[in-house]
């Protein structure tokens, strides 16, 4: 804490005035957090051991005055729904999901009305009249049911308010506004019961009407004293929002006509080093905050007087990861939104998995693979569920949907956690489902270690959701209407918004990480504030209320103007006694998490105090001269051994050679390192899978005719068998993938159409007089390339789709499912053949011709492509330009020229001086 902090000053005043009766005073502070720091401040200044004074937050104090217990937001929403069902006719009752959408906003309005002691009947009739005026022009005959229901809602507001108010009073519980209203009603009784005790209100800024009335009455009765914490710079400037409320209290409270107004300080004008730092995006701020803390720690060693104030709670996790490892102790005092809580995300995924499984087929209980994998790969589940083999099976077999029975067949020995996660949910047994969720959380907790910091964080996340599940268990026992899993899920989605994660730590030592509201009353020497952007700090004009802005202004309810003033006070109070201040903001003005620089920064610049040292910095991520440096892998001795192993063993395939041309690094990864692609479920059939299916179909259809001449009768049989063979191959290749609907059904039909078009073209050519004999299908070929220009003999090997004898010539056919044009297989000049990837089809075809050359038995040979996306092109043969025409027969001269080019390419691959260099498109 700072040397002369507000709490130090308050401690001195208390000891000076009440040292003998210190246990007889009650100190009321804006929040609970400040209590620990005040006790510490008192301890340092007290000469001996005494009973500490009672120190309470304003909310606890008001509860004591009213004699009513506060209920949390989740409980309140449930109580309100009970009241709603009691007072609303059954035919007009809404489900909890619809009710909660407007009930949360309505409770906020009830809260404001009561906190400011307004007359509810006046406000609700005012609102009803406004809505009636909006629809005054509509004749009664023209009013729709929707409009009537809408106007009826406004008429029912007084009934909802009174019924809820009375219901909560009977139970001895209430929301904040109700407690405040009852506290005012009960103030005289409380004042009499107070006896000789003295109340001290310290560090307040904005007060609602109820708080004002209570404090003023106690001041009038000489039972209380108030210590403000306001700087003269804010108080004396009539336009400064930081002093908006305190200025009014000083001017309007009658007590201050005869009593001194304490305390007005002059700390803001003291010397301060203020660094304003802009950086793109939220994560950039987290990184800079971590770096600043590292620098501060090097200078001062201790972080006890350092506060990191987060303008938005989403920054908490990035900040924790950005903190240097040298930070040994820290205290987090802020709520963390449950929507980002990993435990909540897991429970939400479980609800989706099981509710969808029931909807698909309640008997078979069908899971969708993505929902299963989402749970199995969740960070709280994956390390403990022991289901790695199940994930592999799902990915390898393209299982898109699987039944509950199938899931447990694949996972032969399921762990206890696995069973809890995937056992069927009984749609009509909500209690059992809630117990299951509770057991899942406890089981995961049992795997976590108290000694690991990360596990402690995980336990905090689990505990916050465990409390919500327990509340749902209690609510289910009290409210039988929560009778199906789908209803439970809607209730869960509503209540989870109201559940925050609370962190615990050592409040007096180490770095303090807090939200804006948690910083009230506290002072630090060094303050780092993040998210200094409009819409974040201050929060902006978001007003979630049924009461219009102009009505709020007229009735004295707080609007965004007052909320901005509250933010202004908190911000300037943070700076008040700090010596080193770092203000971080997002420089991006558009996109997510973006906004203009906060007005508070501009205000600091315009109203700069003489002793303030302001500096501006913009931090950008380092941008190298090149966005990406291509990878280059030198050919080590081991790589050369592997290359020789390939060249003399399995051999270089035509596709392998073209892979090298396309990108040497891809060749290195696939052929040298033998890295295969990660197995993932093909939910939609990929092009290469479709190609495999068509190739396999044609192979199986034509297999009975190998070594035979094709006839018209054969073609009729091929047409008859085509569709069933396509389906068979789909089942073999795509395994358990879904092909009966969606994109996969379209792909299935495309495959059938491609095969049909191929057979149709085959039949047309037979009718035109072609004589076709099938020699081989999907056959492996290989040939050793012996050349003095090579360091050693090299094998060329690969699979050919089809070899046939057509009209007395050998024809080698390569099927392509992609689109190939005639000019893709025509060669004008041998120069640079292996340097341009556009020649990849020519190289593949000539490799096939080279491998089969010795088996032609003196027959002429042609090689070419059949493109299923260009069936009009028919068989497109390789052609070498001779004068104005293209020669399609592969002659020994052509193969000799090709050998020269392929030797150049292979020599490059085998050259130890030429590294594998990545090619970037």
Spell out the key features of this protein.
single chain; 921 residues; alpha/beta; seven-stranded parallel beta sheet; five-stranded mixed beta sheet; 15% strand
Describe it.
This protein is 49% helix and 15% strand. The chain is built from 34 helices and 29 strands. It is elongated.
Summarize the structure.
The chain is α/β, with parallel strands linked by helices and 921 residues long. The longest helix is centred in the first third of the chain and has 27 residues, at 145-171.
Q: Mind sketching the topology for me?
A:
Layout lengths: L5 H13 L6 E5 L3 H13 L8 E4 H9 L2 E2 L2 H15 L8 H20 L4 H15 L10 H27 L1 E2 L1 H10 L1 H8 L3 E5 L6 H12 L3 E4 L2 E2 H4 L8 H9 L11 E2 L6 E8 L2 H19 L5 E4 L6 H7 L7 E4 L1 E3 L4 H19 L5 E3 H8 L5 H4 L2 H9 L4 E3 H7 L5 H7 L7 H18 L5 H26 L6 H12 L3 E3 L8 E4 L11 E4 L19 H7 L4 H17 L3 E7 L12 H8 L5 E7 L13 E2 L3 H14 L3 H9 L1 H9 L14 H16 L9 H22 L8 H26 L4 E14 L8 E13 L2 E8 L9 E2 L12 H13 L8 E7 L7 E3 L1 E4 L2 E3 L4 H19 L5 E2 L4
Parallel strand pairs: 1-2, 1-5, 3-4, 5-6, 7-8, 9-18, 9-19, 10-16, 10-17, 11-16, 17-18, 23-25, 24-27
Antiparallel strand pairs: 12-15, 13-14, 20-29, 21-22, 22-23, 25-26, 27-28
Strand arrangement in the largest pleated sheet? 11-16-10-17-18-9-19
Q: What would you call the structural class?
A: alpha/beta
Query: What is the average per-residue confidence, as pLDDT, rounded to a whole number?
Result: 87
* Ends apart, CA distance between termini: 58 Å
Unreliable stretches: none
Oligomer: single chain
Tell me, briefly, the overall form. elongated
Question: What is the total tally of β strands?
Answer: 29
What count of helical segments does DSSP give? 34
